């Protein structure tokens, strides 16, 4: 989804606006921009389960909390977890395994954060079709253990694989 850069565009993130919204078991992901080397998404977490696995990317990831609180935990026991407030920005170094979820868990309001990262880690799956996305996810899942993520040669957005995790 290459976004047009010659026309200004406003998305009302707190209202759930995005060019594309994908529900996942661990929150909804709204892609607001994808192109010119940058991927920008919002993530809304409300009543979802806590992802039991660890997330990491082969490049830096920038996260800013817009609404609610986000609890961040790290797989590395030497890194202390913390709770992010609206306006807090996390610079997540490449290969840093973490998970993040709404805090406190019983909060009524969803936690919404914005993330931006280099697009080079994302394969454009918009033109390859549903069956090919499933095949790419299967190859990616086979190439890596979600708990001990060695970086695969193939990388697509993890949330695109959620629908296929049970089918594989």
Written account of the structure:
By secondary structure, the chain is mostly beta strands. It has a domain of 112 residues: Jelly Rolls (Sandwich). It contains 2 helices and 9 strands, in the order βββββββββαα. A 6-stranded antiparallel β-sheet has the order 1-2-3-9-4-7, with helices on one face. The protein has a 3-stranded antiparallel β-sheet with strand order 6-5-8, with no helix packed on it. A hairpin with a 2-residue loop joins strand 2 and strand 3. Helix 1 packs across helix 2. The two termini are 26 Å apart. The C terminus is likely disordered.
Number of helices: 2
Task: Kindly report the name of the CATH homologous superfamily of the domain at 13-124.
Answer: Jelly Rolls
Shape: globular
Q: Assign a percent range to the helix content.
A: 10-25%
Mean pLDDT: 79
Query: What's the gyration radius in Å?
Result: 16 Å
Give the class-level CATH name of the domain at 13-124: Mainly Beta
Are there runs of 5+ residues with pLDDT below 50, and where?
121-130, 149-156, 164-168
Give the helix/strand class: mainly beta
Order of strands side by side in the largest beta sheet?
Answer: 1-2-3-9-4-7
Helix-strand pattern: EEEEEEEEEHH
CATH topology of the domain at 13-124: Jelly Rolls
The assigned CATH architecture of the domain at 13-124 is Sandwich
Count of β-strands: 9
Largest sheet: 6 strands, antiparallel
Measured by DSSP, the beta-strand proportion falls in: 25-35%
| Distance between the first and last residues' Cα | 26 Å
Topology:
Blueprint: E1 20-24, E2 27-35, E3 38-45, E4 61-67, E5 69-74, E6 82-84, E7 89-92, E8 98-103, E9 111-118, H1 130-143, H2 158-165
Antiparallel strand pairs: 1-2, 2-3, 3-9, 4-7, 4-9, 5-6, 5-8
């Amino acid at each position: 989804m290459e976004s047009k850069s010659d026309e200004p565009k406003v998305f009302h993130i707190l209202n759930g606006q995005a060019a594309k919204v994908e529900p996942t078991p661990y929150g909804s992901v709204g892609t607001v921009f994808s192109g010119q080397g940058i991927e920008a998404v919002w993530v809304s977490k409300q009543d979802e389960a806590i992802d039991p696995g660890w997330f990491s990317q082969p490049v830096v990831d920038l996260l800013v909390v817009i609404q609610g609180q986000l609890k961040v935990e790290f797989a590395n026991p030497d890194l202390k977890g913390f709770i992010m407030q609206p306006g807090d920005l996390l610079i997540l170094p490449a290969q840093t395994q973490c998970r993040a979820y709404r805090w406190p868990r019983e909060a009524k309001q969803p936690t919404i954060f914005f993330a931006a990262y280099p697009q080079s880690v994302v394969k454009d799956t918009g033109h390859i079709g549903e069956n090919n996305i499933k095949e790419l996810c299967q190859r990616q899942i086979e190439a890596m253990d979600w708990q001990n993520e060695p970086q695969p040669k193939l990388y697509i957005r993890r949330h695109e694989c959620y629908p296929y995790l049970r089918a594989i």
